[in-house]
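Exam revision sheet. Question 4 asks you to relate a sequence to its structure. Input first:
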Amino acid sequence: MQTGIQGGDLTAVEEPALVTALVAPLVKLRAALGDGTRPGGTALAALAAVAGTVRAAVDAHRGGITPLASSETAAAAVPVLKRTGEEVGALADVAETLAPLVTSAYATRDEAAADLDVLIADFRAQATPLVKAARSQADLDSVVSLAADYVRDGVSVAEAADGRMDALTARITSIDQAGVTVPTGLPLDNDITTQRDRQAGTI
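Answer key, structure tokens:
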């Protein structure tokens, strides 16, 4: 025997075994949605702040390019630096697009979980007194029929949530994953060190 506390019913009413068995498919659907744990507020705030932080860095990057453009020794690097700034800026666009999609995914899960909690609690509230008052097989058959209706509603809730999740996944997948191009032909740190050593006559 279980109490009606499980599945959202806060009354400590003894639950007949038949009700427990009939509500089990709904309980499994609900369990599949998880406990609803979300990232902490700090993590969500950090994700939301990514776009602004990256754009601030890009603005600083652009400001530094201007004086370089007038320098003969650095002028050749200016096109590369500009392209890098544009690519980093595109990363901010990705973060800005991704954040609301993540929020929507959690909201979809929460709505489906809440709907299933209501279905579970409502079924238990209706089925428990019916089973206790049953005097014939026909009375029990009506409870089984009621359970079938609730399970159909539960499946509809789960399928709708799954459809919304698929749509969100498709949108995330379609986001242009910006990257930063690594220019070819630029000396690495060890190459620069080797050149200096040669100039100094140490190698």
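Marking note for examiners. The first helix runs from residue 17 to 32.
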